[in-house]
Design brief:
With 358 residues, this protein is α/β, with parallel strands linked by helices. It folds into two domains: 4-172 and 334-348, Rossmann fold, CATH 3.40.50.1370; 174-273 and 284-328, 3-Layer(aba) Sandwich (Rossmann fold). 39% of the residues lie in helices and 12% in strands. The chain is built from 14 helices and nine strands. The strands form two sheets. The chain has a five-stranded parallel beta sheet with strand order 7-6-5-8-9, sandwiched between helices. Strands 2-1-3-4 form a four-stranded parallel beta sheet, with helices on both faces. The structure holds N-carbamoyl-L-aspartate (NCD). The site of N-carbamoyl-L-aspartate has 12 residues, from helix 5 and helix 9.
Length: 358
């Protein structure tokens, strides 16, 4: 296994993502990550193991005895939630996941309340957190920061794992895990995820959840991907290149109704206007044809599902909310279970939970 202590930051940074994977693995973890930084660390085998572990944790947690067993699994560990970008679900579901496993937690939710405001570097802040905690769950507007911090920590006297809870416009690997978990669960008694069609709609250019999930879907057989967006917000070239290189069947479109008719899952996203270079730029784009409402609902197949990483604005009409195919609420709760599974696996507790008596 490759080690982060044996490669310079410059050499590591310049590797293609797939070649970075071995440097980030959990020793003895059979392909499970130690640092979770991007979607390219996951293949079908570790995805299936994480989904099975999430199902197991979900089941064990149903009884009081089971819940108490889980609360003891990581009661000797502490997690730092370091979020310097807004978050509701990602923050709370990681927090709840830590609580299920009995971890105590600390948090910074606004860099203005930490010493970074006084000019401290990210490196020094992370070293500070690692003095008091055993894992850092971090969200940052900066692309690649979680990677740099993982390298720094692995090369420090207190190496602890980093979970990337969203990095800039780039990656959101744990969101993609919960999206895959939701898809796998939705189709588990209906022939599985292989051979399905997934449509992404909205701001595909700047949505990090899209990049991460599009990659994870390539681990499944014959999953066709359709990208529906206004031209200005279409899927970026790097995502298209990965799909083309892997021989994935995909289509770029501007017709949500057409795509809905042939899709097993429609993954809606909001316009990410916080990245506009001039305030109000996004409002000049005509997004009226990229909203899911009653007409799209009528075209959606009986077993198909509607997903959204949330928060939503008006891209899914609230009239869809009570339809059994609206999966976004369950998707949100799935985040807690898959994150608990990932955290437990990161600390090497996968097999003990899988094989416990509950
Ligand atoms: C997403 C994000 O932060 O990238 N939200 C989330 O984590 N559930 C999507 C978004 O903000 O639109």
């Amino acid at each position: 296994m490759a080690k982060l202590t044996e490669i310079s930051w410059e050499a590591f940074e310049s590797l293609p993502l797939e070649e970075k994977k071995p440097y980030l693995e959990l020793p003895g973890g059979d392909g499970m990550p130690y640092h979770t930084l991007f979607a390219q660390q996951f293949d079908r085998a570790n995805l299936e193991r994480l989904c099975a572990l999430a199902n197991r944790i979900r089941f064990i947690n149903k009884s009081k005895e089971g819940a108490l067993y889980l609360k003891n699994v990581l009661s000797h560990k502490r997690a730092m939630l370091y979020f310097s970008q807004p978050s509701s679900r990602t923050f709370l579901s990681h927090l709840a996941a830590c609580q299920i496993l009995g971890m105590t937690t600390g948090s910074v939710r606004d860099a203005a309340t930490s010493s970074e405001f006084k000019g401290e570097s990210h490196e020094d802040s992370i070293r500070t957190f690692s003095s008091y905690f055993d894992m850092i769950i971090m969200r940052s507007p900066e692309r690649g920061l979680a990677e740099k911090m993982a390298w720094e920590l692995s090369n420090s006297e207190r190496p602890i794992p980093i979970l990337n809870a969203g990095s800039g416009k780039d990656q959101h690997p744990t969101q993609a895990l919960l999206d895959i978990y939701t898809l796998v669960r939705s189709f588990e008694n209906k022939g599985g995820l292989d051979g399905r069609t997934v449509t992404f709609c909205g701001d595909l250019m700047r949505g990090r959840t899209v990049r991460s999930l599009s990659y994870l879907l390539t681990n499944f057989k014959n999953v066709r991907q359709i990208f529906v967006a206004p031209q200005e917000l279409q899927v970026p070239a790097d995502v298209v290149m990965i799909l083309a290189k892997k021989g994935i069947d995909f289509e770029v479109s501007d017709n949500l109704k057409e795509a809905t008719r042939v899709s097993d899952a429609v993954y809606m996203t909001r316009i990410q206007d916080e990245w506009d270079s001039a305030k109000g730029d996004s409002s000049k784009i005509d997004t009226s044809n990229f909203k899911f409402g009653p007409e799209e609902l009528a075209l959606l197949g009986p077993d198909a599902i509607i997903m959204h990483p949330l928060p939503r604005r008006d891209e899914i009409s609230t009239c869809c909310d009570h339809d059994p195919r609206a999966m976004y609420w369950r998707q949100m709760r799935n985040g807690m279970w898959i994150r608990a599974a990932l955290i437990a696996a990161t600390f090497g507790f996968e097999s003990s939970i899988m094989n416990c008596g509950y």
